[in-house]
Structure formats: structure tokens, C-alpha cells
Fold this sequence. Notes:
Two copies of one chain form a homodimer.
Chain A: H1 3-17, H2 23-39, H3 41-60, H4 66-72, H5 76-91, E1 99-106, E2 109-117, E3 120-125, H6 130-141, E4 145-149, H7 155-170, E5 180-183, H8 186-194, E6 201-205, H9 208-216, E7 230-234, H10 240-252, E8 261-267, H11 271-284, E9 288-290, E10 304-310, H12 313-323, E11 328-332, H13 336-345, E12 350-355, E13 372-374, E14 382-384, E15 390-401, H14 404-407
Helix pairs in contact in A: 1-8, 2-5, 2-6, 2-7, 3-7, 5-6, 6-7, 10-11
Amino acid sequence: MNRVEDISKNAKAASINALKLSENIKNEALMAISQALINNKDEILEANKLDLIQAEKLLNNNQISQSMYNRLKLDENKLRDMIQGVIDISKLEDPVNKILWEKEIAKGITLKKVSCPIGVIGVIFEARPDVISQISSLAVKSSNAVILKGGAEAINTNGKIFEIISDALTSVKDFPLNMVNLIYSREDVNEMLKADKYIDLIIPRGSNLLVKFIKENTKIPVLGHSDGVCHIFIDEYADIDKAIKICIDAKCQYPSACNSVETILIHKNIKDSVYDKLVDALQVSGVKINLNVEDWHKEYGDKIVSIKIVDSIDEAINHINTYGSGHTDSIITENSENAERFMLYTDSSGVYQNISTRFADGFRYGFGAEVGISTNKTHARGPVGLEGLTIYKYKLYGNGDIVEDFTSGKRQFYK
Amino acid sequence: MNRVEDISKNAKAASINALKLSENIKNEALMAISQALINNKDEILEANKLDLIQAEKLLNNNQISQSMYNRLKLDENKLRDMIQGVIDISKLEDPVNKILWEKEIAKGITLKKVSCPIGVIGVIFEARPDVISQISSLAVKSSNAVILKGGAEAINTNGKIFEIISDALTSVKDFPLNMVNLIYSREDVNEMLKADKYIDLIIPRGSNLLVKFIKENTKIPVLGHSDGVCHIFIDEYADIDKAIKICIDAKCQYPSACNSVETILIHKNIKDSVYDKLVDALQVSGVKINLNVEDWHKEYGDKIVSIKIVDSIDEAINHINTYGSGHTDSIITENSENAERFMLYTDSSGVYQNISTRFADGFRYGFGAEVGISTNKTHARGPVGLEGLTIYKYKLYGNGDIVEDFTSGKRQFYK
């Protein structure tokens, strides 16, 4: 058994022990984590400095981008947000051991559907070291064991934060060992992807390439999205001011976000009134219009946008279902029939009317925390909150009941 | 593009067209199917005869079992049940376009979580030809396109039933083409397993080997269970009469079912009062006791049971979590604290108190129909009804809203 298989096996055992965790002990554990992070701020910043020295070299050689460097760099403000994030998660409703429904299926036989943790979750992320405390806290709150793999650039920071969290959890009486685990190398990831005997779900958070690689190389269910090719369709019944305002926000507010817009579709009947104004507004905001689109499925992740004129709402929907990534797509229209048509037929996680695609986010949806955004068609779709880290079991309470009595006709199930 | 890829692509297109289907048109389609099956009963029985001729040869050469032959054979009664099944599904609540919840996330911005079909579902099953009409009906009711692959033994019967269903659906005005598809060979299945671009979920219904093969050979999410290694734990606080009655039912009522018991665990403190009685009762019912257990994970699927004496409830739970298949496990006890401990710690789809494991079934749970039983830890677990064929999308309604107003602090989300 190799090291990662060993870690996975222990995490599986931890996940069984975690089934007993009460809400109180989980919140106590989260408080211990936040306090330990406060107490060890300086150590974290020092570890981060070691990573930044390396990163600066890579930055100077153009091996990493400035934005990656920025994501890696911690400061007092980011640390404060990180610690506040842990405290916020402690305040969320406990997602497990909730009775989702119960009913008597026959006289004296009660069936309960009860939420419970998934088990062991592997999370692979890049650069941002604040993800460790966020995911560890979500795992604790949902009674799941977690195996984390951070970016190589953040190895010192991640190692230090992990050490602090581990020590904090060990200090909590009756909290299971091995609930939070850290692995380091790309080889470790390859081993983790093979551990389908122990790991129940993999959540990759990072580049399209990372997510695609993981989906291609594991039998474990994967929750996430590889592409974020979002669209705005300006319907013939659009309010032009709203359309322009929303397009600017959806492209410029954070161009590298997965929920920023890549393609704007314009109904031919409104082209004359909106096209020039829109292009002007985009260009004033520094957006490049791609007029020679070769690949409508491309995610620019930058201040670039494609524009296409379409003959009908159905052509727009068809374009989105063909070239989109099932992430988030918005129609700008004052016609509610067209809005409903668009929202019904567009096969995406988020279908919007008169609002920026940038709203696709677990915090904005009011989930209190976000595990990631999923374009899956099973389990969880769209922004995923704590609930996405749960499944359910059925509890059935009887009193000596046997199936034979029902197949023989002696007893009946309720209708 | 090969034939199966072509079928899958067309099914994907059909699934988009199916998003518009109203409850009325779907029920009309189901009525058309049931009427067509009634009208063509004789043709179905004749096609079945062709399969039976082949099957008899295989039976005489011991290449198939008597029970497989029995499952393959249709008669008036089975046909009537099959047709009633279609009618029953038409009466179930429409599982899609249900608003699961809605809330205002900020002034004037409303978020709705709405159930919707998954898309394209591949179903692979063996022998029983009545599965075609059942799965086709479930797909119609849930607005999913489906690709079916039946057992080679039933090729004539399946082909005929498929033809009748296809013709019936074509006769329904505005019902999309290519919603129900049939493929034939093992090579077809291999092609289907590769069509992850078009197919969203695979449901294998059949032997452990079939399910294992499929899980190993596709990137498409698989819903189902390979093993059904169910346990009954007779706690030290068990009512002995209930224990014996339940063990007999769980083993003998239908020994080859996945929810029949394979291992009985007995608390050492109650052994003297229960062991001999239990063994006698089992033997009277023709059950063989396996005293030389080499593989606790084995599913007998026959009138054979393993018995083990355990020192504690925790040893029982640990045994089940180690050797079980996460299907269904029951504790026999009058002690509700022990029952809750068992039901919390046992990591299975169904955890029961004082009731036979044979109750693990969608119809018995009151779902009205069963897609299959899942031991997955994501999407759907336990007996899966129509709801398991759905996912959800988020609809967000705004009025020109942009994220910039929220990040700048000009507007706030509701808490």
C-alpha cells in the first residue's frame, strides 16, 4: 500500500467515526481552527514569504502570471477574511442528520429520509492558500473527511496552514483523527485518483486543463466545471440600457471568472438600435470585440468578447446549447414569454433574465459558502453549497414486519 | 460517426426538445403506449415465442438457468402487469418543472430552484423484456431521452415492444422524435459507454458482473449497485421471535434478490437463546448455513446464509462497514438507543430496525416506480424513483442588476 492509499484508507475510517459528530463538537472544532489561525498568523505569513520568493523568480521568468502571484500572496486582510470564513461556516445550519421527510408506508412501518455526509472527498486546487481553511471547514461542518492537494507554488503556506488546522482538530476532545489530510505532489494526485475504493467524490477547483485531466483519469465521481462559456442574448424586446449595463458588468467586473460572459448574441430586429452603442461601451471599458470567431466554444477569460447576430430566440438557444458549457446564460428581454422560453429550453445550470451572469455564485445565491460551481447533470448543479457535500440514507422502523405478509395479500402498503 | 454515436447524438437533440413537454402531452404519450401494447398483444407473444425457442435450447444445454428462462417468458398475466405499469406511471406526479424553492436574494432579484430532466439516460438490462416498457415510460414521464440495451436472449421480444412503443410515440402530435432508442449488441454497449459527450447517466440493471464491467469502462456517471450483501444483526436486546421471523423472510422470501440477507450477526450475550432456534428455523425452510466462511463479502443469491457471533454492537457495525455493500442492513433490537447507534454508524443506503431487508424497494417505499437501487454516495442512494431521473437548474430573475453594485457596497444581498 502506498502512502496516498494509506491516507485514503485512514480518511475512510475517519469518515465512519465522523458519522457520530454532533453539531456542537463540529462548531467547537471550527472555533479551534479559527483561534489557532489567529494565534499563528505570523508563522503563516512567514511561510507565505518563502513561497513568494520562489514565485517572484517564476514571475520574472514569465513562468507564472501576475494574477497567480497575487492569488498566492497573503496579507493581514486576506488572513482576516480567511479566519472570518471559518467562523461564518460554523454559523451555517448543520447539513447532516436532517430528516428530509418521513412517512408511514404501512401500518406501524415508518420510513425516514435523513441527510448524511458523503464520506471522503478529494479536493484539488491551485495557487490560493486560503482554500485549505475554507474546504477543511466545510468538511468539518458536513462531517466529511477530506484529502487536499494544493498548488506546488503554495507548498510552504499550505503546509503551515494544514499543520495549524491539524493541531487544532487534535486538541478537540472526541474529534476523529485523519479528518483533514494534505497530499503534495502530482504523483500523489495520480494515486488519489485511483483510490476509488476509499474516496467518494473529487472536487477539482482550478483551470479547465486541471478539471479535464481529472475527469479523464478517475472512476471517482467528479463535481465541477471545466469551462465557463457564458452567453448573454439580447432579445428583440430588450431594454437597451439594461442590456448594455449587464454586458459591461458580465464581461468587465472580473473577466477571468468562470461566470463572465464570452459571447453576446443579438436579435437581428434590435441590432440597429443596440449594436453600435454596445460596441462603443465595451471598447470604452477596454474590451476587444472578436469579429473573426473561429471557435464559439472558447473561454477567453479576458477582456475579449464575441458578438453574433441571430435571426430568432430559437437560434440563440440553439447556439447556446451547441457551443455553451451549460454554466450560466442570460436573456435580456421585457417579454416574459420569451424569458420563460429561453429559461426552459436553455440547458444550463443557471438561466437568467435581465441580470448579469456574474451572479452565479454560492455566496450571492445565499448559500453562505461555496464548494464550487458544477455543470454536472447529476448530484449537484450550479453553485454548490454545503448541501452538495451531503447525500441521504433511508431509515426504516418496523416491529417484526416481513415482506411475505404483503406479497401474500395479508397486509397492504398505504397508497 | 458510428451508428451508436449517431443514436446518442439524436437522443441528445431529442432531450432538448423534450424540455418543452407538458404533463398532458407526456400522459397522452403514455396512454398511447399502453393502448398500442394492448392492441398488439398477440404480436408481442409471437415474438416472445421466437426467443423462447432459442432459450429452450440454451436451457437444455444448461447455458441459461430456469429462472432466466422464466423471466424471459411472457404470458397474458405478465403482459397485463406490464401495461398496467405504464398506466400507473402516467398517474405519478410530474417530477420536472417543479419549483423546489424560491427566494429573493436581494431587492428585486428572485432565485428559483426548478427540477428538470437529466437529459439522456442509457439503460442496460438483462432477460426481462417488460423492462423496456417500464423504463421507456419512466423516461417519457420525466422528459428524459433514453437508450435501451436489452439481453440478447430477448432480442425478438424487445425489438417488437420497442417497435410498438416507437410507433405509439410517433403518433402523438408534437412529441419529439428519438426519445426512446434501442441498441442491440455488446459492441453497441461499448460504443454507448464512450458517448459521454451525449449521455448523462448510465443505469445498469442486472448481474454484479454487468454492473462492475460498466463501472470500469465508462466516464459517464453510473447509477446502481453491483453487490447486495445485506446483514441482519441480532442485538443482545432483540425480541427472539421477531428476529427469527425476519431472518426467514429476509433469506427465503426471494433468495436471489439483491436485498435478501447474506450474513446474520448475533450478539454473544443472546447466542444461547437464539442460535439453535434460528438454525432450526432456517434449515426447516431449506436454508444452508455456511459455517466455513472464507469470503464475508460474498453475495450468495441463494438459500445459503453465513452466521457470525460478535462481541458487541460496534463489532457488528464494523463488520458491516467492512464487508457489506452499503445496500441494506437491519438491527433486531428492542433497545432504541442501540437502534439509533446502529442506524447512524452503519454506512448503508438503508438502515433498518426490526424489519426485513426485503423492504428495500421503490414500490414498497411508496415511490410508485423504481428505476433501480443505488449504493452510490452521490446523486441518488437506495431505491430510486422518478426523482432520481431529475436534476435542477437555477432561474434568476432581475431587472438590469449588476454585480458591480454589490461589490462596490452600493447594494446588499439579504442575509
